[in-house]
Amino acid sequence: MSIRLDLPLDLENELSTEALRLNLPLSEYILRILSVRTVLSNSPQTGADLVAYWQAEGVINSRPDIIDSQVHARHLRQEAEARTRA
Prior knowledge:
Layout: H1 9-21, H2 26-35, H3 37-41, H4 47-57, H5 69-85
Helix pairs in contact: 1-2
C-alpha cells in the first residue's frame, strides 16, 4: 500500500535526521516507528510481561551459540576492559 503524507517541515527534518543517524531510508524508518506503536502504547507492566514479549519477538533463545550466558557476559566484559586499557 502506498500513502502520500504531507508532514510539517520540522517533523520531516526530525525524522530524516534520525533515519540518517540509523543509516535507514526515511520510508523504512517511518515503517519501523509505525510497527512499534502498539508496544509503546501497551508496554509490558511486569517482568513476566516483558519476558513474554521478548519470547514473542524471538529475542529469547536467539543466540543458540551461547551456552552459558554468565560466562559469555564475563568474556564480553573482559574484552571491553582490555579495550579501555589499550
